[in-house]
Amino acid sequence: MNDPRADSSMQHAEAWLRQRLRSQVWELRILVREEGVILQGHALNYYAKQLGQHIAMQELRLAIVANEIEVRPALPAPTIDGDLG
Known about the structure:
It is a single chain. With 85 residues, this protein is α+β, with helices and mostly antiparallel strands. The chain has a single domain (4-71), classed as Histidine-containing Protein, Chain: A (2-Layer Sandwich). The protein is 39% helix and 29% strand. Helix 1 crosses helix 2 (46-60). The mean pLDDT is 81.
């Protein structure tokens, strides 16, 4: 699956998904395999991870063989004294 048109299509799909998911999912990557696609990246919560998968299924119309989007909640904002706790 090294067709340049397919690569361009996946890049377009990644950009479109990033736009749809805004800051809920970041470092999003779509890996194409013979049997389907693998989603990778990071999400703020489990809902965003599932939303990314759902939107990808609708947009790509390909089987998703793995959703490797890792849930990473945002770090708490620092307090006035600079302490993270």
